[in-house]
Specification:
There is one protein chain. This protein is mainly α. The protein has 2 domains: 7-207, no CATH class; 208-259, no CATH class. It has helices at residues 7-22, 28-34, 37-46, 50-63, 78-92, 96-134, 137-177, 182-206, 212-224, 232-258. Helix 1 packs antiparallel against helix 3. The termini are far apart. One of its GO terms (cellular component) is plasma membrane. Its main location: membrane. It is found in: Cell membrane. The chain crosses the membrane at residues 98-120, 140-163, 183-204, 211-228, 234-251. It is a multi-pass membrane protein.
């Protein structure tokens, strides 16, 4: 079990988060920003403990399932949250529920940092207006693509690196000393309840009354088949088959009504 994180490990994770928050890899990095799963995988690879990192990240993913980003801003930054909470959980051997309670405030601080990035980019926009008036192609490329990425890298890399290299060992050591106390119990209880909030948000965003029956069916199938140790891939295949049958029968019904 890790008791600390090296400078090189902190630098790799911080660089990953900075690239994701900068959208430096194009539109695909937008999805990487919205989900902590890839960040958790990177953390697991860097810390040589992918299984434990992914178990923790899967629990964190549940609370972000229903998040939307109006205007490009999130109430919490999932990638930032995972970059700190997962190393802490791996180093302190935390239960995923307790790691969730750490991820929430860290993600909130990450959203403030992302909003500050918008403020810094307003200065870049002044140059964009200037180059647009001059019809300067190179200048527009610089201010629309290059400078915003550099601003994000300069902003996020030092913040995440310092938080990882200096902060996570202290948090992990503190949590290890209070694992039997009331504080740890509170963190576990709060973290255990937050995934339900994420699922509820998802149902609110995409849920319709006529589809609730499918959610209930999936829930009771998971309860009934728990003793069989059915994996997620099997559930995904069953869900895909049911979705295909639903679309097939509803489309036939619609065609018959038109005739």
């Amino acid at each position: 079990m890790h008791v600390s994180i090296s400078a090189s490990q902190a630098a790799i994770i911080a660089l990953w988060v900075a690239i994701v928050e900068a959208r430096a890899l194009g539109y695909s990095t937008l999805m990487l920003r919205f989900t902590p799963l890839m960040t958790g995988l990177v953390v697991g690879i860097v810390m040589h403990n992918v299984p434990e990192a992914m178990v923790v990240t899967a629990a964190i993913q549940l609370i972000y399932m229903g998040l939307i980003a109006p205007g490009g801003t999130l109430p919490s930054e999932p990638a930032v949250a995972a970059s700190i909470a997962v190393p802490v959980a791996v180093m302190a051997n935390l239960d995923p529920s307790a790691a969730i309670a750490i991820a929430v405030p860290v993600g909130l601080l990450g959203s403030y940092l992302y909003s500050f990035r918008f403020l810094l980019n307003t200065f870049v926009l002044r140059l964009t207006d200037k180059y647009a008036e001059e019809l300067n192609d190179r200048g527009l490329t610089l201010t629309i693509i290059v400078l915003p990425i550099l601003v994000s890298l300069v902003l996020f890399f030092p913040a995440i690196f310092i938080a990882l290299y200096k902060g996570t060992p202290l948090i992990a050591a503190l949590i290890k000393t209070v694992t039997a106390g009331k504080l740890f119990h509170v963190l576990t209880v709060i973290g255990g309840g937050l995934p339900a909030l994420g699922i509820a948000l998802t149902l609110t965003v995409i849920g319709k009354r006529k589809f609730v029956v499918f959610f209930l069916l999936a829930y009771f199938m998971a309860v009934i088949l728990k003793s069989l140790n059915v994996n997620t891939v099997t559930y995904a295949v069953l869900g895909g088959i049911m979705a295909y049958l639903y679309v097939m029968f509803t489309s036939k019904e619609a065609d018959s009504q038109q005739i």
